[in-house]
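This section describes the prediction task in plain terms. A model, or a person checking by hand, is given the sequence of a single protein chain and must write out its three-dimensional structure as a string of tokens. No templates, partner chains or ligands are provided. The sample shown here is typical of the held-out split.
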Amino acid sequence: MVAAKSEAGKAATTYFRTARPLPSLVTVLGLGYFAWVVFWPQSIPYQSLGPLGPFTQYLVDHHHTLLHHGYWIAWLIHLGESLYAMVLCKSKGITDGRAQLLWFLQTFLFGIASLSILMAYRPKRQKRT
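The expected answer:
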């Protein structure tokens, strides 16, 4: 009985789950496209992108500074989400350094796709006798 409680406690301190593939893919593709638009707009085949092409061309031609600032703001938001993930780890009893690092990195790369999993996590409370 004592071993089962200690195993459950260990599992709670090392809790980590990978983000779901589809939301992660959407985030990576979105940030990748954003970077492409901001840093290499001359290489984008606007005519081959369907309705996204003319819209992107308009943004590049008329609002490039806004796109540039928005790109860095998006990464700052991901950094903020990652720092919040560290706060959540501590409040939910995830004390293992490796698990915390994984949550930080995953949330930095995938944003809310990762953070939502950590926010939904409810650690089991140990019963005190």
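For orientation: Residues 1-5 have pLDDT under 50 and may be disordered.
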